[in-house]
Specification:
By secondary structure, the protein is of the alpha/beta class. It contains 8 helices and 9 strands. A hairpin with a 4-residue loop joins strand 3 and strand 4. It binds hypoxanthine.
Length: 285
């Protein structure tokens, strides 16, 4: 069986982080592909490269700088993951979600997950923001789970309810803030696949029938571990491209397109997330 981490490993990493920051974050934020500029808004930032934290996986993909930025953002003290790792990079799902466990043992109670995603819903356009209402765990249906292996009951339950993954109150708060700021916010179901291939047109038709509005290669394992650890989760996708649903179409999907779209999405996403954070006066409640 592949290596499983224990609470000692999470605490070892947490101790290194605590020794390098003045702050005690209560909120976590994961920045997806091309969205890392949001961390530039963090005040009094302490920056820790992932490579300097024991067991932390290091991203190998362009658009994922790979460092923790800890400080204040629009009020609350938060820990920002500037870049994440993905299963397709060769990491196990336990490695992919290691940072979420570290957040858990550090006392983080609320996790905001962002990602770049392909638009599956035919009404979506590149540049749209989508509030994640729910996800389709296709990677899990294929047999992959970050919770596979021995369960430590001090971290969370063996069998986990997933019917309320994306917190209802936080979704309402995101809608309210978007309306106040005049930011258009779509809403839908995120389908999580393993990647690294983009989808075939047949995959896209399958995903539409299954109820997906957006598709990507991250987020689902992180949301699972965050829920297992008792965190409240808010998820927002930046629609970086419209999924190609016709084998005869001229267009192709590319990572360059994803990063390019991130430049137009990141400033709006920053305003939305900072608006949400400014309203989270008591994230522990
Ligand atoms: N498919 C899967 N993942 C993605 C896409 C996509 O079209 N765009 C950004 N991440």
């Amino acid at each position: 069986m592949e290596r499983t981490f224990t609470i000692d490993d999470f605490n070892t990493a947490a101790d290194v982080i605590r020794a390098r920051t003045r702050h005690q974050p209560t909120i976590g934020l994961i920045l997806g592909s091309g969205l890392s500029s949001l961390a530039d808004h963090v005040e009094d930032a302490d920056v820790i490269p992932y490579a300097e934290i024991p067991h932390f996986p290091v991203s190998t993909v362009e658009g994922h700088p790979g460092r923790l930025v800890i400080g204040r953002l629009a009020g609350p003290t938060i820990m920002v993951m500037q870049g994440r790792v993905h299963y397709y990079e060769g990491y196990s799902l336990q490695q992919v979600t290691f940072p979420i466990r570290v957040m858990q043992v550090m006392g983080i109670k609320l996790l905001i997950i962002t990602n770049a995603a392909g638009g599956v819903n035919p009404t979506f356009r590149a540049g749209d923001l989508m509030l994640i209402k729910d996800h389709l765990n296709l990677i899990g249906m294929a047999g992959l789970s970050p919770l596979r292996g021995p369960n430590d009951p001090s971290l969370g339950p063996r069998f986990l309810d997933m019917s309320k993954t994306y917190d209802r109150e936080l979704r309402q708060l995101a809608r309210d803030v978007a309306r106040e700021l005049g930011i258009e916010l779509r809403e839908g179901v995120y389908a999580g696949l393993a990647g690294p291939t983009f989808e075939t047109p047949a995959d896209i038709h399958f995903l539409r029938v299954a109820g997906a509005d957006a598709v990507g290669m991250s987020t689902v394992p992180e949301a699972i571990v965050a829920r297992h650890g008792g965190m409240r989760v808010l998820g927002i996708s930046g629609i970086s491209n419209v999924a190609i649903d016709d084998p005869d179409a001229e267009s192709v999907a590319s990572h360059e397109e994803v990063l390019e779209a991130g430049k137009t999405i990141a400033p709006r996403l920053a305003r939305l997330i900072m608006g949400v954070l400014s309203r989270l006066s008591d994230p522990l409640g």
